[in-house]
Amino acid sequence: MRPRLIGFLCEWCAAKALENMAHKRLRLPDGFMPLRVNCSGAVELSLITQALYEGASGVLVGGCPKGQCHYREGNTRAAIRLRAYRRLLEALGLPPDRIRAVWVGSGEGERLYQAIWQFWKELTGEASPL
Amino acid sequence: MKKWKIFLCECGGNIGEVVDLPRVTRELGEREIEIFRHPFLCSPEGQAFFSRKARGAKGVLVGACAPDLHGETFRRLLREQGIGRLQLAPIREEAAWTALRNPTEKAIRLLRAGLAALKQIQSFPTRAVKPRPTLLIIGGGAAGITAALKASEVGLKVYLLEREPFLGGKALHLDRLYPRLECASCVFSPKLSSLLRAERVEILTRARLVGISGHPGDFEVEVECQPRYVRIEECHGCARCLSACPVDPPAINWPVPHPVPRVPVINPFRCLRFKGQSCRRCEKVCPRGAIYFEDTWSRRTLRVGGIIVATGFRPYPVEKVHYYGYGRLPEVITLFDLEKAFSSGTMLSESLPKPLERVAFVHCAGSRDRRHLPYCSEICCGLALKASLRLKELFPRAEIYHFYQDLRLKGSEGEGLYQRARARDIKFVRGRVAEVSEVPWSPEDEGRLLVLAEDTLIMRKIKLPVDLVVLVPGFVPELGARELAALLGLCPGEAGFFEPRENKVDPAETVRKGIWLAGACSGPKDLSETVASAEAAALEAANFLSRSEILVGYPQLEWQASSCGKCYLCVEVCPFQALVPAAEGLKVLPELCQACGLCVSACPSGALSLEDCGLRESQLRAVLG
């Protein structure tokens, strides 16, 4: 089941958006593996590195919409860190596009769906069945 | 020997028919693992099965639905058995319902990840707290008032926060109620007056929430109050000041039909004294000395056990639908302007140049439209029909047209209303109005409005000259809902309405414990639905706050002095100021820590650790392996 896309989804918004999407029975690529975290800001960069190192084709970090973080500024921190991390990847000569962030509210299942398929398409060329 | 136990729920075919559970069982089977399957793990029978089979387990993994749905049930059942280690793998949402080709494979990986985490977690750390029997209600509309009354009846102390100077919200401006056309104030004002008599209810008007800290059961909230310039405790509502004011209309006033509290408010932008003049007529006539020009903005800190959010909705600003001309053409009004005119008793005919011969109700003004509101607000059709019947009572000669897309009237009474409207010769045209124009089609209609539409039932274009256009907008969340959502950490949905924890089974609860939703802040609701949801929220709150103790998660942030480089990046990133530099290096204030893990991910030397964060590496390995 390669390629594999890891989604670190915050349990307050992005994981809820995934549930919202599930209620609409929207289908995601089989390689997409969601992992629930308590906050997008709690995702250590070393964890993302590990994910890429162990064979993930891409890492998607999903958090609450800007300014709506359950922990006040977790998603803002995550956004800053991911930006810096992408620059680091670029400096190392690695493709920075393998890291992406998406900020969705709990009811925005369709936006998350679009974001995941968009990312998946860029990684693998396989487009959404819809 | 104690074993790990995995419970797989078939969810009545939702999982069982999509995921090959026998294969899952084969693949996950190990010597130390026992696997059970049940068609409905959440049913009473399934719960009994779960308790029976879980006995003596080292830890339990449940592969079922989303953790918010039944996680609490499983956790409770395990606590009764003295088992603290529980991990949930939502294979229904994450595999069965969303996997494109191979749900079984995905479910196996998710369960492996869950198992990897389960083997590492310690028992769920909690501490018992006695909740404070006080409740904060944000929003003093129909929902807030109902919830306040119900909560005070069961003995809770209630703070009722209202942004406006008077309570009542939108319901105050209603004239008649859908669908029986009974008088709104006869139904609603007894509630208002019983609120004033209610014990243990403290009303804070012109107030808003500015800060919150603490945990469920004991929140500390900061409230900011705008000055009223009249002392509420002194004033007895004689209204002499209103007639003494030299400004017309008076700068000291109560501009609503049923002012509660019955204490006027001074508008500092109109009052002569605030414009630098020496007028103090209201102060002189007041027999109680209640006028207080030196009043200032103030802040208060309240300790409450729980919060009910009842911020409500507002009609969509139809100015944005520019082709309907609202705000530009004086004869184009909204349903709410009409309702206000009815309830305040100002006859429409006075403000209109011509007698009303023909009125057009334009339904779905901005609703079900990708450019404006992509959803249907459900209640506006009924409100429009009700208003048109009332208009027909007042102007029996007027011809009334409804331009609708679909009439969505609820229940038998809604249908009855429609039949009554037909019987009164109110006309219905199915089709969206393209434009409301002031340019007449024929010269004799000079001065009237022209409604351009299409009747999609007879497939013909319609050009109808009318005297009054009533736009029926949908609903959006009240102003400030987004800011409140940010403060309380509630996740609004796409439309901005707050999302309940679970739409069907927990409509009053939010993702945050100790915060509940009442009324139209979670979606457009009519008065009866609002009252029902407010009562539900009050019940949830009373149930939660009257418990002898509640368990709150006790964050276990650990700091290792030996690896700390004393950069204090953690102190800088902590959003809750729970970390402070100390003589020995760092001090963690557990009562402020929310266990978000921001400091853990920021720490460059790995000196901080939170139990939860350590699980992820093994989970990652499990899904990638």
In brief:
Chain A has helices at residues 14-23, 45-53, 74-91, 109-124, and strands at 5-10, 32-37, 58-63, 99-103. Chain A is of the alpha/beta class and 130 residues long. Chain B has a five-stranded parallel beta sheet with strand order 8-7-6-14-25, covered by helices on one side. Chain B has a five-stranded parallel beta sheet with strand order 16-23-17-18-19. A four-stranded parallel beta sheet of chain B has the order 2-1-3-4, sandwiched between helices.
- Total number of β-strand segments of chain B? 30
CATH class of chain A: Alpha Beta
Helix content of chain B: 25-40%
Instruction: Using the CA coordinates, give the radius of gyration of chain A.
Output: 14 Å
Report on this structure.
- The complex is a heterodimer of chains A (130) and B (625).
- Chain A has 130 residues and is an alpha/beta fold.
- Chain A has a single domain, classed as Rossmann fold (3-Layer(aba) Sandwich).
- Chain A has a 4-stranded parallel sheet with strand order 2-1-3-4, with helices on both faces.
- In chain A, α1 crosses α4.
- The longest helix of chain A is centred in the middle third of the chain and has 18 residues.
- In chain A, 60% of the residues are buried.
- The mean pLDDT of chain A is 90.
- Chain B is globular.
- Chain B is built from 18 helices and 30 strands.
- In chain B, strands 8-7-6-14-25 form a 5-stranded parallel sheet, covered by helices on one side.
- The two termini of chain B are 28 Å apart.
- Chain B has 625 residues and is α/β, with parallel strands linked by helices.
- The chains are: A alpha/beta (130), B alpha/beta (625).
- Chains A and B meet through α1, β2, α2 and α3 of A and α4, α5, α14, α17 and α18 of B.
Key terms:
heterodimer, A: 130 residues, alpha/beta, Rossmann fold, 4 helices, 4 strands, B: 625 residues, five-stranded parallel sheet, 30 strands, 23% strand, globular
Can you lay out the helices and strands and say which pair or pack?
The complex is a heterodimer of chains A (130) and B (625).
Chain A: E1 5-10, H1 14-23, E2 32-37, H2 45-53, E3 58-63, H3 74-91, E4 99-103, H4 109-124
Parallel strand pairs in A: 1-2, 1-3, 3-4
Helix pairs in contact in A: 1-4
Chain B: E1 4-9, H1 21-28, E2 33-38, H2 44-54, E3 59-63, H3 67-80, E4 86-89, H4 91-96, H5 103-120, E5 126-129, E6 134-138, H6 142-153, E7 157-161, H7 184-197, E8 201-204, E9 207-215, E10 218-225, H8 240-244, E11 252-253, E12 265-266, H9 281-285, E13 298-304, E14 306-309, E15 313-315, E16 332-334, H10 335-344, H11 348-351, E17 358-365, H12 380-394, E18 399-404, H13 411-423, E19 427-430, E20 433-437, E21 449-455, E22 460-466, E23 468-473, E24 475-477, H14 481-488, E25 515-517, H15 527-545, E26 550-553, E27 557-559, H16 569-573, E28 579-582, E29 585-588, H17 598-602, E30 608-610, H18 611-624
Parallel strand pairs in B: 1-2, 1-3, 3-4, 6-7, 6-14, 7-8, 14-25, 16-23, 17-18, 17-23, 18-19
Antiparallel strand pairs in B: 5-26, 9-10, 10-13, 11-12, 15-24, 20-21, 21-22, 27-30, 28-29
